[in-house]
Amino acid sequence: VNMYWVYPLFSYSQYELLIPSYEYTENNVELLSRESNLLNTFRIMSYWLNSNVEMPSQDLPLYYVLLLSSFVIPILAFAALFLKRSIKYVLLFSSVALVALLFAMGTQSPLNYHKLVTTTPVLSKFVWLLRDADKLSFLIAFAYSFLLGIFSSHVYTVLIKQRNNYKKPF
Question: pTM for this structure?
Fold first, then answer.
């Protein structure tokens, strides 16, 4: 995913240009963000819904099991906010996830940052970085992984303490 940005910069730096000649159109961004609503982006599923992934029919109970299970990882990741320990890291990664969530929504984002970037002359040089907003969802996965690590570490510590208290003689 990182090569998505690094390769164009590297290839154009050979020609002493800092900005690739990428044509940024609102139609392309709108097409790539068509399934990027809040819930799909929260579950990091917005791009997968565009592809030919087979999903069970909504009439089957398996559909609701799959739907509910897609919320497990984000909910457990943000459950780390309720921990008392290492809250500064939890707040840092939660804020990274929320900002990345807003950017990964593309044109569906409530911030409407695409219009700001295209109309501001200084920022319009960097508009090619936003050509596929779903590529920014790697930041969401990055933040989720750290939040899940913090949460599971806390749960493990609590379970070990309970096990040790259970084994102590009276």
Answer: 0.72
